[in-house]
Amino acid sequence: MAKNKDGKTLVTKQEKSFPKKIKDSNNAIFEMPDGYAEYLISLKERIICDRIKVVLSANSAMTLLYWDIGKSILERQKQEGWGAKIIDRLSQDLKNAFPEMSGFSPRNLKYMRKFAEAWPDREIVQRVVALIPWRSNITLLDKLQEPSKRFWYANKTLEQGFGKDMLVHQIETRLYEREGKTIHNFKAVLPPVDSDMAAQIFKDPYVFDFLGTDDPRREAELEQKLIDHIQKFLLELGQGFAFVGRQVCLEVGAQEFFLDLLYYHLKLRCFVVVELKTGRFEAEYVGKLNMYLNIVDDQLRHKEDKPSIGLLLVKEKNQMIVEYALAGFQKPIGVAQWERQITQSLPEELQSSLPTVEEIEAELGKKVVDK
Predict the structure, then answer these.
(1) Residue 26 CA, distance from chain mean position
(2) Which residues neighbour 289 within 8 Å (Cβ) at sequence distance 6 or greater?
(3) Contact of 363 with 355, CB cutoff 8 Å
(4) How does pLDDT run across 135-169, given as a tens digit for each residue?
(5) How many angstroms separate the CA atoms of 176 and 68, rounded?
(6) What are the structural domain ranges in the chain?
(7) Does the domain made of 177-339 have the CATH classification 3.40.1350.10?
(8) Closest CA to 273 of 256, 254, 291
(9) Is the pTM of this model over 0.70?
């Protein structure tokens, strides 16, 4: 493409005669805005310059290119009043100019515009958002409206390597609202750095949506179901948990004690003892778990390991009672609820008026019998 001595692009006679009237996808004729031909030329130059970068660093360079295109569309539409139909024309021209490149569909160009609008700061895009896949960015745009939540999930995707499907799952199960919500005594018994890390690793509630529709009645049944779905359970626990064993036997004073589930956390560098309860929280559960942690630290912990942590999962709890029960214990313990499916934030009066799963199943069964 020709340039003058100042390095500016020269618009050729052919390009100056760019057709003012074109047909859109519905064959309707409309006027092209002034400056469109020059804009298309500059955009082509931008794409040509970045094609090598896109090949060398496919994801981040492509995402930044998409952001630049989206921002330029936003600016033209805002400053020069370009209408929505310009997207269809731009898509056609870019496809013709770069037939070997994908991603210039009208739908994707609209996502580029939305992407630039959602992330106005290019530095943040370059530092975080450009490092995650474009499909994941589209998911963030489609499913989240609040910028703070969108940024939080973008960081989580980068930190934990969420694929698109896992990102969707974490958004739908409201990880943002659950992470770091476990009631615990970590600040009182752990160094600040370890306390902060442990607090962020645990969540409340834990969602066991893979259990099916029936609530387990006994701890052994719940434990078996979690083991049957060990991969999904590990995903729900979060990154860093390694399964050690179930019903791990500890022998003390000629008596045997059995841990429900034992894990090792690779970042915390410690054992995590998980105790399962299918009912309401009881204060004596904390004392028993504290004893288990003492035994694990004495019998299993290596000198390089940090103090073991206990996680008590219950079906129901009262926060004040849990806080009183944890006070005074020297072993780090967290208490959280588990649910079969995430409870949506609905007004209490509306929640009480909705039928339970059991009531729905009973009503459906009744209708089948009536027929």
Answers:
(1) 39
(2) 273, 275, 310, 312, 331, 333
(3) yes
(4) 999 999 999 999 999 999 999 999 988 989 999 99
(5) 29
(6) 13-131, 138-172, 177-339
(7) yes
(8) 291
(9) yes
